[in-house]
């Protein structure tokens, strides 16, 4: 069955957070549903659609920003009571807009996630989970990492309260009361949870999750363990998943899975077979999808998908045909409807233009008076700085509620700017002095009109740490700019993982001294990404990491007064040793540092690097030959006389150039890593081998693995 969807923009509210828009239950079968949405101005707006126009039902006064909006009510009755989380307070409204609840929780932080089931209220701040029943405190749990979302399995099916927390450290934590029942390991950090088919499936135990790196999966949460059912990777390299809903948009009796991503993609997955879902339809909007719902909004009898975007647009993808089939009377009626709508929009636009001119004159007059006070317009920026496992680069996504004029990117550490296909901005580089100002990167992105979202990619060098700054200037008057800072950590290309291969040859760094558990944890947070800032509960903790560029690994175990760091890459141990010594010296803490170097680990690391080195050297050679081969082709008019390998280079020229362009300085980075490995190997022996580096580079140019290993052994 082919699906044809038409886009309709209904209304714009203020900037919206994740999961803050819902559809109220319909009064009858196929009747239109009311939409309720909460924005960051603290306003709850409820409206319906009549003759294509948004008709308000109620609108609350502004207040603190709304972080979540859920529907509730007694179990097995229509869920039509509206609950919003704002700060540390939960408010309840009837479908007519009357406030019946104002519950000030005992949370010291703002509520980040909320779920409602009957009289049970589940709330999460950054690390804290609280369960309330009839607004009375029932259970409490402190999570090991940040909580991104929460839900509870349906009580009418499972017969007990089973809350599930989606945590940043790539796990789902399943609770029983105030205790952890078990953990479920996931392939990425989960950002959103939803009950399968909206009710947990036949058993009520099935949960769909979406991750920040764009993966989607379903797992069954039983009383003793989790049973993974299916998982879909992010082959198309799309954005992270922010919202999920289940709705039968195809009308085939089976609910489809609706997915909203942070790059503006809306996806519809269909369960053609009983096992894995298949992507049936997708639609691209220009900004992130904060909430998604399936229902009937615009016209009786026509289902649609409603999305709330970051800047507050409520956009429908409706099954209602745009060009109706019928006689001339039907077409005339449609054209009259459209004419009146166009006319009213023109009038509204003219009034707005007059109002803007009046306000601009007013501002000019007030700014030139002797009592003038400068007013900086506030604007909201939604930013995300994450490490991509696939290509060992950092994605910086900047989203602004209004059009972006330009973004200036500055860094005090060496960084490579990589190409992004979706990026239409014009980039220009400025020369910078690295010596007096520690300026290594200065680039300006000039955006095209109406660009509200910009994605950049950078790759860092491990061992060199500092700050990346983005100066965001939107197209608003008077000109104003916001600065956002992102830390480039010493071991910036490492990513948290659930386990490591213990059979690899490992080097060990041991620290002992008069430091507290909180102090050594703060040093680890400084060195490595994806470590929770909050000091873990208990007396000892172990974290596992993998280097996304090389595939080497790191195990860090530490407690009060001691720390053990194991890695199969000696350079990782060397960086940790230098940085941890520096941090301890800053705090005047005396460290006793010892290490155990495994000679076999150097050979092992070289064997991991070599295939990448060989591939990049071959790519560079092919790219250098392209111009000469193309010249030959022009002169000779025929390339049949060339060897097959040269003909294949010509055939693949565009792909080779594209790949080479996407990975600037890749070969230099590999040379740098091998050089660091060579220097670090002998540094632990107390030998300075920097004079032998030119000889090492000559061997690298020859790309001989055995010769390279022999050089390392003989030096």
UniProtKB/TrEMBL annotation:
Domain BBS7 GAE as annotated: residue spans: 377-486
Q: Which GO terms describe its biological process?
A: intracellular protein localization; non-motile cilium assembly
Keyword Coiled coil, does the record have it?
A: yes
The coiled-coil segments of this chain are: 335-362
Tell me the ranges covered by the BBS7 helical hairpin domain, including all copies: 599-712
Family annotation (InterPro entries): Bardet-Biedl_syndrome_7_prot, BBS7_GAE_dom, BBS7_hairpin, BBS7_pf_dom, Beta-prop_BBS7, WD40_repeat_dom_sf
Which GO CC terms are listed, alphabetically? axoneme; BBSome; ciliary basal body; membrane; neuron projection
Q: Which residues form the BBS7 platform domain?
A: 494-596
Q: Where is the BBS7 beta-propeller domain?
A: 21-319
| Keyword terms | Coiled coil
What SUPFAM superfamilies does the annotation carry?
Answer: WD40 repeat-like (SSF50978)
Please give the name of this protein: BBS7 protein
Q: Which organism is the protein's source?
A: Illadopsis cleaveri
Its taxonomic path starts at: Eukaryota, Metazoa, Chordata, Craniata, Vertebrata
């Amino acid at each position: 069955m082919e699906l044809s969807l038409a886009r309709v923009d209904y209304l714009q509210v203020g900037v919206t957070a994740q999961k803050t828009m819902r559809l109220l239950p319909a009064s009858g079968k196929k009747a239109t549903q009311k939409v309720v949405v909460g924005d960051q101005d603290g306003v709850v707006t409820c409206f319906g659609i009549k003759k294509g126009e948004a008709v308000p039902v109620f609108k609350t006064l502004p207040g603190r920003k709304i972080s979540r909006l859920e529907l509730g009510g007694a179990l097995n009755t229509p869920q039509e009571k509206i609950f919003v989380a704002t700060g540390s307070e939960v408010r309840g409204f009837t479908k007519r807009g009357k406030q019946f609840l104002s519950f000030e929780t005992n949370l010291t932080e703002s509520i980040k996630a909320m779920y409602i089931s009957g009289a049970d209220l589940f709330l999460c701040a950054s690390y804290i989970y609280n369960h309330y029943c009839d607004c009375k405190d029932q259970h409490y749990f402190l999570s090991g990492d940040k909580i991104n979302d929460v839900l509870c399995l349906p009580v009418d099916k499972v017969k007990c309260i089973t809350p599930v927390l989606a945590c940043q450290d790539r796990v789902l934590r399943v609770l029983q009361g105030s205790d952890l029942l078990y953990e479920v390991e996931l392939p990425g950090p989960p950002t959103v949870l939803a009950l399968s088919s909206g009710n947990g499936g036949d058993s009520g135990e099935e949960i769909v999750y979406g991750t920040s790196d764009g993966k989607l999966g379903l797992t069954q949460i039983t009383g003793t363990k989790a049973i993974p059912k299916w998982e879909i990777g992010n082959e198309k390299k799309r954005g992270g998943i922010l919202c999920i809903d289940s709705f039968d948009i195809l009308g085939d009796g089976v609910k489809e899975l609706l997915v909203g991503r942070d790059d503006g993609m809306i996806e519809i997955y269909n369960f053609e077979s009983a096992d894995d879902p298949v992507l049936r339809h997708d639609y691209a909007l220009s900004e992130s999808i904060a909430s998604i719902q399936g229902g009937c909004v615009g016209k009786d009898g026509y289902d649609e998908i409603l999305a709330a975007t970051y800047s507050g647009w409520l956009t429908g993808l409706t099954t209602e045909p745009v060009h109706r089939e019928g006689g001339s009377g039907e077409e005339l009626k449609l054209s009259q409807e459209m004419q009146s709508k166009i006319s009213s929009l023109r009038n509204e636009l003219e009034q707005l233009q007059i109002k803007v001119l009046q306000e601009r004159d007013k501002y000019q007059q007030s700014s030139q008076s002797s009592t003038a006070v400068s007013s900086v317009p506030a604007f909201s920026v939604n930013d995300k700085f994450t490490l991509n496992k696939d290509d060992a680069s950092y994605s910086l996504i900047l989203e602004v509620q209004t059009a972006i004029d330009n973004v200036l990117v500055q860094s005090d550490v060496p960084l490579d700017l990589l190409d992004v296909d979706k990026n239409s901005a014009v980039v220009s580089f400025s020369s910078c002095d690295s010596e007096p100002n520690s300026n290594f990167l200065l680039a300006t992105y000039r955006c095209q009109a109406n660009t509200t979202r910009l994605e950049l990619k950078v790759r860092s060098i491990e061992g060199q740490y500092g700050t990346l700054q983005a100066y965001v200037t939107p197209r608003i008057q008077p000109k104003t700019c916001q600065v956002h800072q992102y830390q480039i950590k010493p071991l910036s290309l490492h990513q948290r993982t659930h386990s490591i291969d213990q059979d690899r040859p490992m080097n060990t760094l041991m620290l002992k001294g008069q430091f507290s558990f909180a102090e050594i944890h703060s040093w680890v947070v400084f060195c490595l990404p994806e470590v929770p800032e909050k000091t873990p509960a208990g007396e000892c903790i172990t974290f596992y990491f993998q280097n996304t560029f090389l595939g080497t690994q790191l195990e860090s175990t530490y407690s009060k007064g001691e720390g053990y760091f194991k890695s199969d890459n000696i350079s990782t141990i060397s960086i940790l040793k230098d940085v941890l010594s520096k941090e301890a010296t800053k705090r005047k803490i005396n460290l006793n540092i010892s290490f155990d170097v495994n000679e076999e680990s150097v050979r092992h690391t070289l064997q991991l690097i070599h295939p990448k080195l060989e591939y990049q050297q071959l790519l560079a050679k092919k790219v250098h030959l392209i111009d000469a081969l193309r010249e030959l082709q022009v002169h000779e008019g025929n390339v049949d006389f060339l060897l097959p390998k040269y003909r294949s280079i010509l055939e693949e020229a565009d792909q080779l150039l594209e790949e080479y362009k996407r990975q600037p300085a890749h070969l230099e980075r590999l040379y740098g890593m091998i050089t660091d490995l060579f220097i670090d190997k002998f540094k632990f022996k107390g030998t300075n081998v920097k004079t032998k580096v030119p000889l090492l580079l000559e061997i690298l140019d020859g790309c001989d693995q055995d010769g390279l290993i022999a050089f390392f052994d003989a030096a």
